[in-house]
């Protein structure tokens, strides 16, 4: 991809280091191992505030007081229920998409948009756009939990208005009253993953928003990017490394890493496109997992350390550290979330960040239209006769 400015072309296959716009939502300072939402450290927010608080921060530009938090929670809860027509379609969507819940969510949101009368952002105006974004964000967990349960042969569990986002998510997955420690852990996870700079899915959402499309269309496009294993599709795969170490390497992380590198394979859960040192989200979630207790966090921390040391020894020129996916899987498993719901849990958080970017981009009212450096045969050539 490229960007042409006054006949000067800047190219990089992954747009690394190329700023495409400005944002007031947050930033990732990879060399420092730091990221933030608005003016606040994302890690500190995850340790001290709720997901509702951070959702409010991204939507309104400031943190709420207790009264504002309660009112915002009520607004979210009022939008969780799905239209009857969409609920009637969910069994068919679940059958068609099977275990691919990202595909199911894309399909459901494509239906949700017209059922709720979501308007193109070009015409909607800021207030209507914000309401549409709140509707899409609030409905996303309901859709995902329902599709999961239908795929398991169980009836969906209706959302509860008296629960916050993390507690309601756990409730809709299991139908059981969530443990307070699990709610706190999932809440911290949701806060830590709500936004992370101009990643592939966020950029995709902004590109679609620049066309003036409706919020649901922007989110559907973002989900398509998010579903790839190099992006949001990694949390469940990362935790599988613990199983593979036992199965393929006799319990030795060192041997498993060496074998994978020799085969030219990636070490899922390690390395990041932006961070050159430790991922601050991994450190946060490692602490969250440790507070949950049990053998899995202890083993995961030991394996993480041994993999990191082995990578440093075998690839001293390119040290890799655990990223958010490795410890995210440990936290979610410790809270009883099934592995196939790890990525959907990620999506229930990131959709809020996507929508914040969508609304910011829509306010620009300018189409994103980059250029590319042509690298094919010289043109024009005569068209050969048949």
Automatic annotation (TrEMBL):
Reactions this protein catalyses: oxaloacetate + acetyl-CoA + H2O = citrate + CoA + H(+)
SUPFAM superfamilies documented for this protein: Citrate synthase (SSF48256)
Organism: Pseudonocardia kongjuensis
UniProt similarity note: Belongs to the citrate synthase family.
PANTHER family assigned: CITRATE SYNTHASE, CITRATE SYNTHASE 2-RELATED
Record Pfam families: Citrate_synt (PF00285)
Keywords recorded for this protein, A-Z: Transferase
Protein name, as recorded: Citrate synthase
Pathway as given in its UniProt record: Carbohydrate metabolism; tricarboxylic acid cycle
Entries under PROSITE patterns matching the protein: CITRATE_SYNTHASE
Domain of life: Bacteria
């Amino acid at each position: 991809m490229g960007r042409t400015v006054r006949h000067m072309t800047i190219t990089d296959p992954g747009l690394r280091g190329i700023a495409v716009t400005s944002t007031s939502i947050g930033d990732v300072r990879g060399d420092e191992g730091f990221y933030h939402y608005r003016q606040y450290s994302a890690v500190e927010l995850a340790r001290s505030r709720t997901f509702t608080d951070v959702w409010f921060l991204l939507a309104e530009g400031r943190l709420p007081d207790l009264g504002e938090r309660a009112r915002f929670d009520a607004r979210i809860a009022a939008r969780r229920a799905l239209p009857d027509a969409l609920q009637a379609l969910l069994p068919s969507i679940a059958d068609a998409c099977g275990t691919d819940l990202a595909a199911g969510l894309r399909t459901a949101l494509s239906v949700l948009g017209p059922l709720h009368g979501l308007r193109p952002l070009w015409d909607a105006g800021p207030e209507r756009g914000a309401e549409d974004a709140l509707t899409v964000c609030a409905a996303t967990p309901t859709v995902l939990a329902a599709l999961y349960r239908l795929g398991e042969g169980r009836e969906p569990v209706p959302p509860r208005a008296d629960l916050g986002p993390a507690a309601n998510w756990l409730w809709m997955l299991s139908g059981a009253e969530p443990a307070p420690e699990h709610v706190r852990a999932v809440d911290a996870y949701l806060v830590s993953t709500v936004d992370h700079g101009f990643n592939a899915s966020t950029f995709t959402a902004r590109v679609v928003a620049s066309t003036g499309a409706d919020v649901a269309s922007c989110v559907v496009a973002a989900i398509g990017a998010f579903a790839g294993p190099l992006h949001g599709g990694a949390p469940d795969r990362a935790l599988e490394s613990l199983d593979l170490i036992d199965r393929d390497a006799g319990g030795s992380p060192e041997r498993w890493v060496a074998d994978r590198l020799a085969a030219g394979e990636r070490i899922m859960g390690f390395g990041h496109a932006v961070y050159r040192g430790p991922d601050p989200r991994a450190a946060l979630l490692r602490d969250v997992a440790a507070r949950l207790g049990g053998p899995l966090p202890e083993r995961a921390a030991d394996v993480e350390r041994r993999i990191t040391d082995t990578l440093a020894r075998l690839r001293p020129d390119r040290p890799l550290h655990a990223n958010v996916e490795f410890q995210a899987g440990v936290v979610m498993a410790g809270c009883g979330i099934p592995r196939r719901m790890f990525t959907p849990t990620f999506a229930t958080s990131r959709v809020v960040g996507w929508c914040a970017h969508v609304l910011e981009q829509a306010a620009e009212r300018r189409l994103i239209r980059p250029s590319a450096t042509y690298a094919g045969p010289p043109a024009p050539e005569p068209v050969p006769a048949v």
